[in-house]
Amino acid sequence: MHRQIIETLSKRSVAVRLLTCLAAAVIITYFYPHPESSHYNYEQNRPWNYAKLIAPFDIPIHADSATILAARDSLDAHFVPVYEINQLMIDSVVAQLPHLQGTNYRNELASKLRKIYSSGVVDSPTREKISDGDLPKIRVLEKNVLSEMSTGHFTSARDIYLHLDSTISDPGLHQYFTSANLQNILRPNIIYNDAESRRHYDYDYLTLTADRGVIQQGQTIIDKGTIISPQDFTNLRTYESMVEASITKAGKSDWLMLFGQFVYVVMLLAILYGYLYFYNRKIYGDIRAFGFVMASITLFFLIALALNTFVSSGIYIAPLTIVPVLVLVFFDGRTALMVSAVLTLVCAAITSFPLEFIFLQFSASAIAVYSLRQLNQRSELLRTAGFIAGAYLLSYLALELLMNGTFEGFAWRMVVYLAVNAALCSMAYVIMSAVEHMFGFISGVTLIELADTNNTLLRKLNDECPGTFQHSLSVSNLAADAAKRIGANEQLVRAGAMYHDVGKLSNPAFFTENQHGVNPHDALQPEQSGRIVINHVIDGLRRADKAGLPSVIKDFIREHHGKGKAKYFYYTYCKLHPDEQVDPAPFTYPGPNPQSRETAVLMMADAVEAASRSLREHTPQAIADLVNKIIDGQIAEGMFDESPLEFRDIPIIKEAFIKRLKTMYHSRIVYPDAPKNAGQPVREEQR
Fold it and tell me: What does the DSSP 8-state code read for residue 227?
């Protein structure tokens, strides 16, 4: 039954990991840009960095954007609009003049109007353009014949009214003019023809922007290293659109391209999955660590994609080296390089220069891993950012010389992009804190900060339990030395050891190292004393939660006694009840037994350091016998069966403990008493 449960849990954990990889692949593929017909990235007035491009078919040479803009500006400035002449308009106006019996005023006014209309009457807006000098001439459409006409003699209805009002001297005629209400009768006889003007405007525009010729099949579109002119830029865009159209006609399937992207991403993540499964079981076995790796790749891909979408060549700003730095800080360098390689290849598919991008990014990631190795101080991260900047710059110079053989294409903007990228890598320190809270990891910097004796909890331990504090310091040094020798996490052991007995703050006087002649256990029953001693683990976990200590530190509190017994009180109880079958449960620590190499080392160091204080003589042989007795006893009890500690580690740990304890308890030189004939110290005033 137990085996079936283990197999079920194992299958579920594998399923969770596979689903995590699948989710990452789906997200990345979903946000991948749709594949284009070409993957060229180029800009006007910059060199063409690819090989010579030959036309695979005839390509029309369209006018470039600058030519089109200049043509439109010129046409807007010099276009002559089209108008029509309405010859019957004057007759319509005259017909609306009022009739007066017995006068000839109507004919006189009609005669004046006919004379004025023969010169041309336009609407007020047109008249304003003429007055401003913006319309020196127009084109007149008459009987399907288009002819140009000067506008200098044109007038408007308002001008006609003002002119007649000021020039008619005959009082009777002026009175008739006033009563005729001409301001409501007069209409222009030269009228703007919007349809014809628009047609002629479009025709003139097409004439000015017509194709300049054809790049025939087999001719060069652009040579490598050529500065891209506006016309070259237009030719390249025309080529790309024609290639896209030809592929579409050939039956390109967007679904097949999407499937290809998905397979590409899945294969990369599968390679990483296999690496973790075969070579890094620590990450593979921890679902949080596995999820962190996949989430990091997905998140930083999206960041790179967003920058590349909204900023030209923005992918070179994306601080992708943060990912290997984080993986190195929390795990190891080999995995950091592997994760960086997968992330780089995932992002390379969205760049226009994949090989160049891969070289730049992998160089920077490798330098980041090699220069950092282990993060213990903030300044180390700043130093690494400087190394990353140097790697980017050197790689970029190498690529420029490799591709162009000259410095002419050297772009300072790219240098600025890469410098910004390197500077952003220093943000890894901020992101590190967020990762620690989200995933429960712990970095070397955090461990160093936790082991600082000025921390509130450790300072309180020093003030209220000085004996326990000194014991913790000794255990910390003892365990850290052994951990270093077997390749375990030295900083983690050092920090964990400082907090492993913090629960003794609840009852300091009940622990030997804090007692001064009075032992409160003398007044208690063994089971009561055992309960108090055992509870220091539970009290320690409670204080750790309150102080916000990471879970890996709480593991040291929880596991430093494992499921061992408070033997002194257990044996005392057994002696007091010789005829009773004693239940060991009330005297057993809650455990669990050590689950890691670090907590196993701490358990050994804790027991050895405490026992060493009871030795009457601290001779090398006595110390060696003590260390062997305690550790062999723990092994015999199965205390380390659940930890990944190996048998070959045990002799190394024992040797480290013995050497350290010899140093701690070394004998000092006994100074002899001063002989009677020894001179007295010479006083200063006697010199």
Answer: B
Please measure the distance between the N-terminal and C-terminal CA atoms of the chain and give it in whole angstroms: 91
**Token pair 């030795």 in the structure block, residue:** 615
Residue 84: strand pairing partners: 141, 191
**Selection from 59-63, 293-297, 376-380 with the highest mean pLDDT:** 293-297
Quickly tell me which residue has 């047609």 as its tokens. 199
Q: Which residue has the higher pLDDT, 376 or 271?
A: 271
Q: Is the pLDDT of residue 676 over 70?
A: no
Residue 684: both structure tokens together: 């200063």
Residues 458, 498 contacting (CB under 8 angstroms): yes
pLDDT at 480: 94
Instruction: Please answer whether residues 358 and 399 qualify as being in contact, where contact means their C-beta atoms are separated by less than 8 angstroms.
Output: no
CA–CA dist 227, 406 (Å, integer)? 13
Helix H or strand E encompassing 121: strand 121-122
- In sign, the C-alpha dihedral spanning 335, 337, 343, 346 is negative
**Tens of pLDDT along 555-614?**
999 999 999 998 888 888 888 888 888 888 888 999 899 999 999 999 999 999 999 988
Q: How confident is the model at residue 321 (pLDDT cuts 50, 70, 90)?
A: very high
Give the orientation angle of helix 551-559 with respect to helix 597-612, to 10 degrees. Answer: 50
Measuring CA to CA, which residue among 371, 357, 474 is closest to residue 418? Answer: 357
Q: What gap in Å lies between CA 663 and CA 679, rounded to an integer?
A: 36
Residue 10's pLDDT is what? 52
Query: Higher-confidence residue: 611 or 242?
Result: 611
Q: Is residue 70's pLDDT more than 60?
A: yes
Q: Give the contacts of 105 (CB within 8 A, at least 6 positions apart).
A: 172, 173, 176, 177
How confident is the model over 149-164, as pLDDT tens digits?
A: 899 899 998 898 888 8
Whole-angstrom distance, CA of residue 164 vs CA of residue 408: 74
Distance (Å, whole) CA 358 – CA 345: 7
Report the C-alpha gap between 650 and 635 in whole angstroms: 10
CA angle at 52 for the pair 48 and 56, rounded to the nearest 5°: 120
Question: Which has more pLDDT, 337 or 526?
Answer: 337
Residue 524, classified by CB atoms within 10 Å of its CB into exposed (0-12), middle (13-18) or buried (19+), is middle
Query: Is the N-terminal amide bond of 592 cis, ω within 30° of 0?
Result: yes
* Separation CA 426–CA 490 (nearest Å): 25
Phi/psi for 353 (5° steps) reads: -125, 70
Q: How far apart are CA 405 and CA 489, in angstroms?
A: 49
d(CA 244, CA 220): 19
Return all residues near 55 (Cβ < 8 A) that are at least 6 apart. 215, 216, 217, 218, 219, 220, 221, 239
Cα separation values, 202 from 81, 114, 129, 143, 195, Å: 12, 36, 22, 22, 11
Q: What is the DSSP string of 592-606?
A: ----SHHHHHHHHHH
- Tell me the average pLDDT of the chain: 86
Q: What is the mean pLDDT of residues 215-226?
A: 82
Residues 339 and 297: beta-carbon distance below 8 Å: yes
How far apart are alpha carbons 26 and 32 in whole angstroms? 10
Please answer whether residues 536 and 520 qualify as being in contact, where contact means their C-beta atoms are separated by less than 8 angstroms: no
